[in-house]
Specification:
- This protein is of the alpha+beta class and 249 residues long.
- 45% of the residues lie in helices and 19% in strands.
- The strands form 2 sheets. Strands 1, 2, 3, 4, 5, 6 and 7 form a 7-stranded mixed β-sheet that branches. Strands 8-9 form a two-stranded antiparallel ribbon.
- Strand 3 and strand 4 form a beta hairpin.
- Helix 3 packs parallel to helix 8 and helix 7 runs antiparallel to helix 8.
- The longest helix is centred in the N-terminal third of the chain and has 37 residues.
- It starts with a helix and ends in an 8-residue tail after the last helix.
Length: 249
């Protein structure tokens, strides 16, 4: 009798959870239609698809969207629209938190997927660039660059993003440790097709500091410096006018 009661409780709870999931999916669909009708979003559709796959496979806590695309999170939180010239780019930088690499690799191994496979769940045309093993590019020229902090005593180097033979290799960047040490910032962003995803990045004040440092760095591509300075100024204004309390210490 006790076993039968446990069986019935299990199926009752399963039915309730199934009904709840159905209702949540219906709510998401309604919101996506409303987003399209009101033209709420303008984040690239492919980026939202990628972020959704990160969430689906439990990879989101280990990856930060950094660089230009972080502006979509800041503008969404502020309820404004940043000038298009400050957002123009065909690549997204994804910072891999090597401090959590064991859990990250375990999740991929359990799913028998490479990091490239996860990207292909968003767009099957993604391929690793032969000349830049940290970069995946799709048929439309959209690129995903995987970056990491500079390797320390406990960090493996070089670092492939999964147990699979064909995958991306994370490239070291000098600002990686500063970005990982900054306060986190999370915001739901919306694509032009109405779909939504949560973007994880770092706090606006860290973005400002890093971009200003890049804009004056001797090693920085001179063609990128004006955009670095522009983005730093834009986010600084967002913080002062709309995002007070959202920046880190």
């Amino acid at each position: 009798m006790e076993t039968e009661a446990m069986y019935l409780r299990f199926h009752e709870r399963k039915a309730l959870l199934s009904e709840r999931l159905t209702r949540l999916k219906e709510a998401v669909t309604r919101h996506e239609r409303l987003n399209r009708a009101l033209r709420v979003g303008r984040c690239p559709n492919i980026l939202i698809a990628i972020l959704q796959r990160f969430e689906q496979y439990g990879l989101s806590p280990h990856l930060l969207t950094v660089g230009t695309h972080a502006l979509y999170a800041y503008e969404a939180a502020a309820g404004v629209r940043i000038a298009p010239q400050a957002l123009a780019t065909q690549d997204v930088d994804v910072l891999f938190d090597t401090r959590k690499r064991i859990t990250f690799f375990s999740r991929l191994q359990e799913a028998d997927l490479s990091f490239l496979d996860v990207l292909r769940k968003a767009d099957k045309t993604f391929e690793v660039r032969d000349d830049q093993l940290q970069t995946a590019v799709n048929a439309h020229g959209f690129e995903v660059d995987v970056i990491r902090r500079e390797a320390g005593d406990v960090d493996p180097h070089p670092l492939r993003m999964s147990h699979k033979d064909v995958d991306l290799w994370a490239v070291q960047v000098s600002s990686g440790s500063r970005m990982l040490g900054a306060k986190r910032f999370s915001q739901v962003v919306v694509a032009s097709n109405g779909t939504m995803a949560r973007m994880h990045t770092f706090a606006p004040d860290a973005f400002i500091k890093i971009k200003r440092a890049l804009s004056t760095s001797r090693s920085r591509d001179p063609l990128k410096k004006p955009k670095d300075a522009l983005q730093a100024n834009i986010v600084d204004e967002l913080v002062r006018e709309f995002l007070i309390g959202a920046s880190g210490s």
